[in-house]
């Protein structure tokens, strides 16, 4: 079993939905792969946290009263010929409050889970490129060679910048697979360290600031700009990676008229 298959099945494994063969295969993979094992532990922690009492949403007393009043008024209009026990209203109000809690918490949990999964995939892609000695499909320090290489291979055109003068020479580019889609991977170098920059179209066109993270000795930065998702990952010092990210964002910024 490879990492991609394990990440797809880890939820079913946590919920006890795999058959004995699938359970044995993923357990063997988790024992052998530290990255997937860490992701599995994080998924377990997240599921337990979502189910914990401290994350349950309790509606304010005013909102509960408004819900009860609205339900009571509606019931009176529909049942003028009969009397509905008050406890039915209370039960309905309780269900409404519970539904509100689900609507509030579920999107937050889903968004956080999605971010965690993409972060692990980005890190796995970086490590995989180093382990397999497959940094670039098009090895070149010329941005005018690397950028056209992606034409026809992706449904978007990734921006490719030349940062050699700033101490981050371009090494090349390749195709990778992140967040269930093909993406562009640009490779830069800082002394003896490599930096992978993964790029693909963003769902929302709104720009977002840098989000930094550290995982297993690697630094990661994520931002959205110009309708594109950017993930930069490397084992250089986080300050060096931050400098690189700032330079890349500045170089990619549209010129002011």
Structure overview:
The protein has a seven-stranded antiparallel sheet with strand order 1-2-3-4-7-6-5, with helices on both faces. Mean pLDDT is 81; it is low at 104-113. It has seven helices and seven strands. It is globular. Among the domains are: 3-53, no CATH class; 135-252, Phosphorylase Kinase, domain 1. Helices cover 50% and strands 21% of the residues.
Helix- and strand-based class?
A: alpha+beta
Overall form:
globular
Portion of residues within helices: 40-55%
Distance between the termini: 53 Å
Instruction: Please identify which CATH superfamily of the domain at 135-252 we are dealing with.
Output: MucB/RseB, C-terminal domain
Q: Low-confidence parts, pLDDT < 50 over ≥5 residues?
A: 104-113
H/E series:
HHHHHEHEEEEEEH
Task: Return the CATH class of the domain at 135-252.
Answer: Alpha Beta
Q: Would you tell me the overall average pLDDT? A: 81
Query: Number of DSSP helices?
Result: 7
């Amino acid at each position: 079993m490879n990492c991609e298959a394990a990440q797809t099945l880890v939820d079913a494994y946590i919920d006890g939905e795999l058959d004995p063969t699938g359970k044995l295969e993923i357990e063997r993979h988790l024992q052998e792969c530290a990255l997937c094992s860490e992701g599995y532990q994080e998924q377990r922690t997240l599921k337990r946290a979502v189910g914990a009492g401290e994350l349950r949403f309790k509606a304010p007393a005013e909102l509960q009263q408004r819900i009860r009043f609205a339900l009571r008024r509606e019931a009176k209009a529909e049942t003028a010929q009969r009397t509905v026990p008050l406890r039915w209203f209370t039960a309905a109000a309780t269900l409404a409050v519970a539904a509100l809690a689900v609507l509030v918490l579920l999107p937050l949990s889903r968004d956080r889970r999605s971010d965690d999964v993409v972060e692990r995939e980005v890190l796995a892609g970086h490590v995989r490129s180093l382990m397999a000695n497959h940094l670039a499909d098009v090895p070149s320090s010329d941005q005018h060679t690397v950028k056209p290489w992606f034409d026809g291979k992706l449904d978007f055109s990734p921006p490719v910048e030349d940062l050699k003068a700033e101490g981050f020479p371009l090494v090349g580019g390749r195709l990778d697979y992140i967040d269930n889609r093909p993406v562009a991977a640009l490779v830069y170098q800082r002394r003896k360290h490599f930096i992978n920059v993964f790029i693909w179209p963003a769902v929302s066109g709104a720009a977002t600031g840098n989000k930094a993270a550290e995982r297993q000795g690697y630094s990661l930065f994520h931002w959205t700009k110009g309708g594109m998702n950017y993930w930069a990952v490397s084992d250089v010092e986080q300050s060096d990676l931050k400098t690189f990210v700032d330079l890349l964002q500045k170089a990619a910024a549209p010129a002011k008229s």
